[in-house]
Amino acid sequence: MGIAAVVLSAGGIAVAAVPGLGATACPRCYDLTSLGNRLYADRDDPAYRTLIDDADRRIAAFYGARLSEPRVLICSTASCYDRLGGGGEKGRALRNWSLMLSPAGINPTIATHELSHVEFHERLGSASGKVPQWFDEGLAVLVSDDARYLRPASQSDRCKLPYDEARPVIDADWWTAAADGVDRPYLQAGCVVSRWAGANGGPAAVLDLITKLRAGADWPADQFA
Questions:
Q1: Which residues form the signal peptide (predicted)?
Q2: What angle do CA 225, 185, 127 make, to 5 degrees?
Q3: What is the pTM of this model?
Q4: Structurally, how many domains does the chain consist of?
């Protein structure tokens, strides 16, 4: 079953209510043109292909391979992104179906961040609901190697703030904390996830976590106590 069929089947009436889902199912209905390899944009720019190829390589470097095959919807103008239902964010992932990039999100870090969400959810499958949003976001910060929120990978501690100031993100409501584009929750989540991954084998720890969650294990909250 193709992506469009999956989205239409899973989304139902939501496709009409949420433009991003509609655009995923029918990009041309939102004036997006195919640039090949599941990439759609409001203008033909070879740099977009290079951008997504780079993000794909980053995902594959972390996981060993990329399993997800999302549609990528790129807007070069604010009016295009508004038409897709976007807001003030730089990008947005729609489960494991697609990712949307705004004009401000057309760069490798943001593309990789959003593709990280898609890849993680693809690998988790029905276990996605077990993962708290702060971990999903912190992992995307780590996979995208976002210099805004993490120190260089060459440093043993990548946190940009003391760990005891980062940990409260675990108990906070992510959507409230990160409302209006506030950066601090990303600093906190990136710190906690990078510290956890560094202490447990890096990418191998994430793959092991995915395997255990898919096998029926509960979220290991004790590992972040």
A1: 1-16
A2: 60
A3: 0.90
A4: 2
